[in-house]
C-alpha cells in the first residue's frame, strides 16, 4: 500500500515535471545560449587570454625509455577490489597540480581563477574511495601506458570541460600539440609526440544524428531535428580507430526538438507551434542511448569504453533561468543534497540502458564500463564557475546582472579527480 502510493506520487510528480518542463523549455533557448553556446562555440583563440603557441612553464621532456603499463597493473591489482566511485571528498592540502598560469587549455568560461573567483577552497579536495586508496593521477605513467594509443572524449561541453582538465595535467609532462580542430573548435585533436599518444574530443551532444539551427549567438531559429534511429557519424566513423573512449551525453536532450525515425517525423519535445505529438525528452533520451549502447555492445571493439553518466547541475535559490546561483564554497556530505528530478530522470535512463547493454557487451567481449561520476559530482556544489564564467563579473559593482553557470566545472576543480578514477579503472581493468 505504502509503496503503491509512493509510486503513484512519483508518477504524478514525474508527469507534472514533464509538463513543467515543456513550459520551461521556452526559456531554455535563452539560457542554453549562455550555458552551452557562448561557452563553447566561440573559437577559444578569440577569447583565450593566452596566445596559442607560447609554451609556458613546460620543461621539455626527453623520451622515456620503457612502457611500464603491466608493472603498474600488477602493483595495483594487489590492492583489494573496491568501488572507487563510493567515497568522500577529503581535504587535499597540496592543492591542484596545475593552475591558470601553468595551463593554457582552460576555456575562459571555466577559468575561475583568472575570472576572479575570490575563494580558493574548492580546489583543495580530492576524491577518496571508502574502501581503497585512490592514487593521484600520474601524468607521466599515464602517458607511458598510452604510448601509440588513441583516446577520445565524446559528448557535449562537459566532455570538453573534462578534456581540458586532462590536457592540463598531461601537459605538465609534455606539452600537447594541437593537430586538428573543426571550424567551430568543437572537435579537436591533440598529440603528445614523445609518446605518440593522441587525445581527441569529439563534439556529439546527442550521440545520434542531429541538425541544429542556431545562429552565432546561440539563438535557435528552429527546433533541433533528431534522428533517433541514426547515430552521429562524427564519432561512429572514428569508433574502430580509437583505443579508449569516454562517451557521454545529457542536457541537450532538453531542448526543443523534432524527432525522426526512418526520416519521418514521429513527434517532438516542446514544439507548440507545430501540430505534433509531444513525446517527451525522456523518450528520445532512452531511444538514443539504447541505439548508441547497442551499437557499442555489438561492435566487437577491442579497447576500453567508458560510458560516463551525466553530471548534475547545482542551481539553488532558483533555476538557471530565474536567478539561481551556486555560491557554496565547500563540498557537501553524502545525503546532504538531493539530486534534482530532472537530473535523476536522465540518470535513471542512463543506468537502465547501461545495465541492459552490459550483458550484451560482455557476451561479445566488449569492455564497456560505467563511469558513474554523477553521485560524486552531486557532492560538489562548490565546484562550478557561478558568476565567474565571466571575467571579473562584479567589476561594475556587486549588483551587476550576471548569468550563473552551475553546470560546468571550474578548472582546476572537481573533475580533475575524474582522471584519478579513470587511471585506476584503466589499470585495474
Ligand atoms: C591567474 O589567476 C590569478 C588570480 O587568482 C590572477 O592574478 C592571474 O592574473 C591569473 N593569471 C593568468 C595568466 O590569467
Ligand atoms: C603512432 O601510433 C599510431 C596509432 O595510434 C600508429 O599507427 C603509428 O604507427 C604510431 N607511430 C609510430 C611512429 O610509432
Ligand atoms: C522504420 O522502418 C522499419 C523497417 O523498415 C520499421 O520496422 C519501423 O516500423 C519504421 N518506423 C517508423 C516509425 O515508421
Ligand atoms: C493537428 O493534427 C490533427 C491530427 O493529425 C488534426 O486532426 C488537426 O486538424 C490538426 N490541427 C491543426 C491546427 O492543424
Ligand atoms: C548565496 O545566495 C543566496 C541567494 O542569493 C543568499 O541568500 C546567500 O546569503 C548566499 N550565501 C553566501 C554564502 O553568499
Ligand atoms: C531493458 O531492461 C528492462 C528491464 O529488464 C526491460 O524492460 C527492457 O525491455 C530492456 N530493454 C532492452 C533494450 O533490452
In words, what does this structure look like?
The chain is of the alpha/beta class and 429 residues long. It has a single domain (2-428), classed as SGNH hydrolase (Rossmann fold, 3-Layer(aba) Sandwich). 32% of the residues lie in helices and 16% in strands. It has ten helices and 13 strands. The protein has helices at 2-41, 44-47, 69-77, 139-145, 157-170, 233-236, 281-297, 341-363, 374-378, 416-428, and strands spanning 87-91, 125-129, 150-155, 177-181, 188-192, 197-203, 208-211, 224-231, 244-247, 257-261, 264-269, 304-308, 367-371. The strands form three sheets. The protein has a seven-stranded mixed β-sheet. The protein has a four-stranded mixed β-sheet with strand order 7-8-10-11. It is globular, with a radius of gyration of 21 Å. It starts with a helix and ends with a helix. 44% of the residues are buried. The model is unreliable at 1-79 (pLDDT under 50). The structure holds 2-acetamido-2-deoxy-beta-D-glucopyranose (6 copies). One 2-acetamido-2-deoxy-beta-D-glucopyranose binds next to loops.
Amino acid at each position: 500500500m505504502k509503496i503503491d502510493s509512493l509510486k503513484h506520487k512519483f508518477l504524478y510528480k514525474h508527469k507534472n515535471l514533464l509538463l513543467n518542463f515543456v513550459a520551461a523549455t521556452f526559456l531554455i533557448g535563452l539560457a542554453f545560449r549562455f550555458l552551452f553556446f557562448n561557452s563553447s562555440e566561440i573559437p577559444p583563440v578569440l577569447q583565450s587570454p593566452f596566445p596559442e603557441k607560447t609554451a609556458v612553464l613546460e620543461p621539455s621532456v626527453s623520451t622515456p625509455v620503457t612502457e611500464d603499463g603491466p608493472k603498474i597493473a600488477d602493483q595495483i591489482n594487489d590492492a583489494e577490489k573496491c568501488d572507487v566511485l563510493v567515497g568522500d571528498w577529503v581535504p587535499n592540502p597540496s592543492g591542484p597540480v596545475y593552475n591558470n598560469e601553468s595551463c593554457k587549455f582552460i576555456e575562459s568560461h571555466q577559468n575561475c581563477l583568472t575570472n576572479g573567483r575570490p575563494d580558493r577552497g574548492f580546489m583543495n579536495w580530492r576524491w577518496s574511495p571508502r574502501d581503497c586508496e585512490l592514487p593521484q593521477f600520474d601524468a607521466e605513467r599515464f602517458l607511458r601506458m598510452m604510448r601509440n594509443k588513441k583516446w577520445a572524449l565524446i559528448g557535449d561541453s562537459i566532455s570538453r570541460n573534462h578534456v581540458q582538465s586532462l590536457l592540463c595535467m598531461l601537459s605538465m609532462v609534455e606539452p600537447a600539440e594541437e593537430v586538428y580542430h573543426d571550424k567551430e573548435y568543437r572537435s579537436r585533436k591533440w598529440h603528445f609526440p614523445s609518446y605518440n599518444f593522441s587525445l581527441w574530443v569529439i563534439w556529439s551532444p546527442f550521440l545520434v544524428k542531429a541538425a541544429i539551427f542556431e545562429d552565432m549567438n546561440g539563438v535557435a531559429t528552429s527546433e533541433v531535428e533528431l534522428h533517433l534511429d541514426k547515430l552521429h557519424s562524427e564519432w561512429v566513423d572514428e569508433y574502430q580507430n580509437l583505443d579508449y573512449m569516454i562517451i557521454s551525453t545529457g542536457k541537450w536532450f532538453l531542448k526543443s526538438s523534432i524527432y525522426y525515425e526512418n526520416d519521418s517525423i514521429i513527434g517532438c519535445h516542446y514544439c507548440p507551434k507545430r501540430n505534433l505529438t509531444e513525446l517527451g525528452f525522456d523518450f528520445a533520451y532512452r531511444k538514443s542511448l539504447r541505439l548508441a549502447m547497442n551499437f557499442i555492445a555489438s561492435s566487437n571493439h577491442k579497447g576500453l569504453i567508458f560510458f560516463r553518466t551525466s553530471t548534475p547541475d547545482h542551481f539553488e535559490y532558483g533555476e538557471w533561468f530565474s536567478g539561481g546561483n551556486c555560491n557554496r564554497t565547500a563540498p557537501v556530505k553524502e545525503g546532504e543534497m538531493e539530486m534534482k528530478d530532472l537530473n535523476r530522470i536522465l540518470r535513471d535512463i542512463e543506468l537502465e540502458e547501461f545495465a541492459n547493454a552490459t550483458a550484451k557487451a560482455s557476451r561479445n567481449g566488449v569492455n564497456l564500463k560505467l563511469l558513474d561520476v554523477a553521485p560524486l559530482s552531486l557532492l560538489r556544489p562548490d565546484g562550478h564557475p557561478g558568476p565567474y564564467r565571466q571575467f571579473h563579473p562584479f567589476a561594475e559593482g556587486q549588483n551587476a546582472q550576471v548569468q550563473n553557470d552551475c553546470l560546468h566545472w571550474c578548472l582546476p576543480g572537481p573533475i580533475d579527480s575524474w582522471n584519478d578514477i579513470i587511471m585506476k579503472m584503466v589499470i585495474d581493468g
